[in-house]
Structures are given as structure tokens and as C-alpha cells.
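We modelled each protein-ligand pair independently. The example shown here corresponds to the NAP entry; the chain sequence is given first, followed by the ligand as SMILES.
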Amino acid sequence: MGVMSISHSSSLLIGVPQNNGARRRSNVVVYCQGGGGNNVIKSSSGMSSMLSSLVSTDHAATLMDAGSLVLSQNGKNQAEIVVKDLVPYGGQTSTTLIGLENGIGIVNFLRGKKLFITGATGFLAKVLIEKILRTETDVGKIYLLIKAKNKQAAMERLQNEIINTELFKCLQQVHGKSYQAFMMSKLVPVVGNVCESNLGLDEGITNVIAEEVDVIVNSAANTTFDERYDTAININTRGPCRLMAIAKKCKKLKLFLHVSTAYVNGQRQGRIMERPFSIGDCIARENFISEAPKYLPTLDIEGEINLVSNYKGNIEDNLLAQKMKEMGLERARRYGWQDTYVFTKAMGEMMIDKLRGDIPVVVIRPSVIESTFSEPFPGWMEGNRMMDPIVLCYGKGQLTGFLVDPHGVLDVVPADMVVNATLAAMARHGMTQKPDINVYQIASSVVNPLVFQDLARLLYEHYSSSPCIDSKGRPIQVPLMKLFSSTEEFSGHLWRDAIQKSGLIAMASSKGKMSQKLENMCRKSVEQAKYLANIYEPYTFYGGRFDNSNTQRLMECMSEEEKKEFGFDVKSIDWKDYITNVHIPGLRRHVMKGRGMKLATTTRRQVHGSVGAKQRPKETHTTPDMPWYNPTSGGKEGIILDLMVQWLRRHGKEEL
Ligand SMILES: NC(=O)c1ccc[n+]([C@@H]2O[C@H](COP(=O)([O-])OP(=O)(O)OC[C@H]3O[C@@H](n4cnc5c(N)ncnc54)[C@H](OP(=O)(O)O)[C@@H]3O)[C@@H](O)[C@H]2O)c1
């Protein structure tokens, strides 16, 4: 089996440590409009006192480190976590962390380095690539793994999905006519697939990578919560194994940097530390310390891989997709994770630790990545993911409530801060090249928690001052979103809302037959909503808070200049400003691309202008969006039918 047959013998680490104190350049970062990075770091004093107050208050019992975490089986133990006693949104002051004079030397590290990046066409990796090229034009070649049928198709994807996109507009402005030549001198598309042996690389490029590459960045993933188990395990668990096999061939490799997710911590509760996983870890077992271990599940990754392969041979094709989906969720929950995505990512981390040998490894664990805070411009976003389908449906008047703990916390981080932390960690550990593994959680829930009921208020404030416009040009007024703590209450709300908005009762007398069909539609739609709420529930009732002490210490290693250029102080984020003036306007412009979402007013922080050249419309859903009904645009019944038919077809449900 590919996963287990990786050789440990070929690791040749002959990289020369970089001179940390080497010549430093003055400000090399080029900012686009609204950026400047000045707003990334504010100065203040609260962190150490806030942290000590966290561990000395009544809820200290829930803020334990991972060694003594308590798992609540339903993950709903919010009463124990007095979120409001943590730091509320807004009103944030920030840190007095003093930068070291010479800092980490991030720019120096990047100079001349050659990188191999997977997931290059994804949201996060593109922000990373853009920042590297804007920060250090003398970086060496960057090899980008791209799924494509041949070199020409990979080159087309490079052009259409990376080089010619709006995200790279600052670089286009900086390089002018030589932009294309500059990009082509740096970026090398490599045809491949993390699901294939040797990543599907041909011999020639394998040799080039083995000879030249200094840093490997693994950002490729399948991020769908309820993905088929076979698909998710192949990409998220076996993919890193295959990449590690390539890493072992690299003669100059200084670092293997893996992008994971903070939610690999599964159903852990309380304060969750930045600790690496090891083979055999199983979150379900952590909860039952008093029970005899023999009655608890033992996670055997090879066994899981075999389970998938064997099952596939024994099931009819037409049932396979659904069964694989169910199996992923069932296996994840059995072992203490909330869904297939985070479970297979956690197993990916375990395999990396098992296989790394003496290769230095950094694991970056961001929480929910949302639009850029300031660079290359505020509000850049791609894909409709995590909380965003809910935010957008709410703004369009399609969703007036959701299943969520009002006092719970949504852990959000802007994409540019994740990228900055990634580069800082890369330089720090790529320079020292110690053969260890370091984990960084890029997360806000401990140092600057965004509470759901505050988020709901911010959404309301945004859409009240900048409502969406319906097809007849009228502003869509939305009420404050109702937050429900139980599926029953949420379901009741959906029914009442569907009935009220569709006029179902009124139609029942005049068009009995049609209204029956409509009622069925509503029923199915409500069922869909409940299914999605069930998938979201582990996140909207999440009982863990992600500690980021390592990440804070990384920041302490940076010079003042680096903190300005590569800031990732999530504590400094003013959620009101970020959500209402940056993130939602960014979503409306870059994700919805203005469709039915015209901004009624201009926001204070300008979100970047027109849509760039030939961008592939990309449906990167973490979860699908939810068109229940659209009360605002004309004939009620037709709209409901249209939306539901579109929805069901798009997601492969039964024919109507
Ligand atoms: N977005 C978040 O909120 C978030 C939060 C925490 C952690 N993360 C982690 O951050 C990383 C990047 O996430 P993202 O948001 O940028 O994801 P994304 O936009 O969905 O991009 C995923 C990337 O992986 C590539 N990929 C998928 N399957 C592949 C395969 N078999 N072979 C090669 N490449 C493959 C995709 O290529 P195609 O374009 O060809 O599909 C795409 O480039 C992931 O590891 C994710 O787990 C994301």
C-alpha cells in the first residue's frame, strides 16, 4: 500500500543555514489601495494580563491544556465556557510585544529559495504566492502542482486562475508591461495530482524538484465537510504521505510546511493547545480516561484505508457515493471528530509525523479563513464557504434564522494574516532546520473571540445600512437573525417562515393540487436546511478555543518592520470594522460578483474594484448554499419552485 511503503532512507538535508543578520532591505512590500499594513498592528497592553485572567477565573476548568481536555459527547457544553468573560468583539486593544531588532529575516530567507506548492489554484495558496512575489522579487522559482490533463492545460490554468486574476492586480501595476515575463520567470506549472503515485509527476520534473526545491508547501485539500470517505482520505490523508515521499528525495529541502486546520482538534473542549498529533491519537479516547481502554475505539489509519478499499469492491455503484458519504461521517464521529474533512486532515497530520524522519516540519492550523484584512487589498475572497452561504442568504432575505449557540464563538482569521504567519514560520524553521515538528494555530477564539450573537448584530447592521437590491431594484430589508439552540425550534421557525412567505395556506383553498406540490417542496427544503444545520452544528456549538501561544511567540521573534510587513496579530482585529466594512462587502463584490447584490451605499473601507480578467467561476463550497425561498422577487410559487429545482439539481438530489 502506497501510504505505508514510503522509504525513510533517502533524506539528504544539506541546506546551509541563512545568515539571520544579513543585509536587510528597507520596506520591500508593495501595498495596493487601502493596505499599508498599518492597521494590522496596534499597540497596547492587554495580552498577558488577559491571558492570566483567563486561567485564573472560574471557568479555568474549561481552559485547560490538551493533556487534560474533557470531551463532551454532544459538543454542546457551552454553559461551561463563559464566552462573554473572554474578550468581547470591538473594544480590542492590542499587544506590546516588542520585536527583536533583526527579526526572523523573512525576506532574507525567501531570497533565492525555490518552493514547491500544492493547492496552488486554491484560495489560500494564491494569497501566499501573491505575497511572496510582492515581498521578494528575487525569490527563486515556485513550482505549482496543478491538476490538468497536460502541460498546456496546466499553463492555461496558471494564466486564467492565477496570473490574470484580480488578486494579482498590485503586482500587475508594479511590473507593468513586464508583468507576464516576471510571472513566467517565477511560476512553473507542474501537472500532477496528490491522489496519484509520485503525485503523477513525470520523471523529468521529479528530478528537477529533487535537485532544486528548498521548501515544500502542502495546501492541497478537499474541504467539503461531508465528502465521500474514499475521496477525502485519498486527498487529505494519503496526499500528504505521497508528498512526504517526494520530500525525502529533495536534496536541499529545508522545510516541509503543511497547511492543516485548527478543527483537526475535533470534539476537544476548552483551551486547545498547539500540539502535534502522533499515530494512534484518538480524540474519543481522551474523554474516557477512567474507562478501560479496550472498550474504546483505536484509530488505525491503515485499517481505515483498507476499510474503504474493501467496501468499494462490495457495493453496487449506484449506492456507493451515498454510502461513502455516510461512512465518512460515521467513522469521524466514532473516533471523536465532527466530520469527514477534519478527521481525514487529522489523519494526514498523524501520517506526516510518522513519516517525517529528520525532515523539519511546520504545521499551520488556521481556523476559518475569511477575506483579506488589508493585503493586497481588503476584502479579497474566493469561493462561498463556511459561514458565507449563511451571510449571503441572510442578506438576500432568504434566511431569517439559524441553528447556533448565541454565546458560542466563531473562530475566524483573515487570509492575509494566515499567509503572513505561514511565511514567518517558514523562515524561522527553514533557517534553523531542526528536525522537529512545530504547530501554529492561527486562530482568534482565545485572544479575540467573535461571539455569534454579536456577529448576528453586525450582519444586521451591515445589511440595514447597505441592503441588497432585489430584481425590481428595491432594497431588501432584513430582520435581526434569530438564533436557535435546538433543531426543533429551528425547524419550527423554518416552517413558519416558509408558510408565511410562500402564502402556502392562502393557496391551499384556490389551487389545492399545486399547493400540495408546493408543500412537498417546502418540506424537502426544510429537510435540506436541517441536514445542513446538522453538518454545521459541530461548528456553531463548538466547545473548544484554539490556543495560539506558539503563534504569539513567533510574532515576538519578528522585528518591528517585519510586524508591519507580515503582521498577524489577530488580537488587533476590530470585528465590527472587519465584518461590516471589509468581509461582507468583499463577499458581495468578489464572490457574488454583484449578482443581485448591488451595494446600496459605498462602504468606508473601499473594497477593490472591478472583476479581473478571465477568472474561472469557482464553486469551492465547504458547504452548499441554501436557497429555501426568495420572498422578494415576484411570483412566490414560481420562485420557490425555481430555486428548489435548481438547488436539488445542482446537488444531485431526486428529480422533481
Ligand atoms: N478555507 C478555509 O477556511 C480553511 C480553513 C482552515 C484550513 N484550511 C486549509 O487550507 C488549505 C487551503 O484551503 P483553501 O481554502 O485554499 O482550499 P481550496 O480553495 O478548496 O483549494 C484547494 C486546492 O487543493 C487542490 N486540490 C484538491 N484536490 C487535489 C488533488 N487531488 N491533487 C492536487 N490538488 C488538489 C485544488 O485544486 P483544483 O483547483 O484543481 O481543485 C485547490 O488548488 C487546505 O489544506 C485547507 O484544509 C482552509
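Residues 118-125, 145, 147, 193-195, 219-223, 235, 259, 261, 345, 366, 368-369, 383, 385-386, 620 surround NAP (CB under 6 Å).
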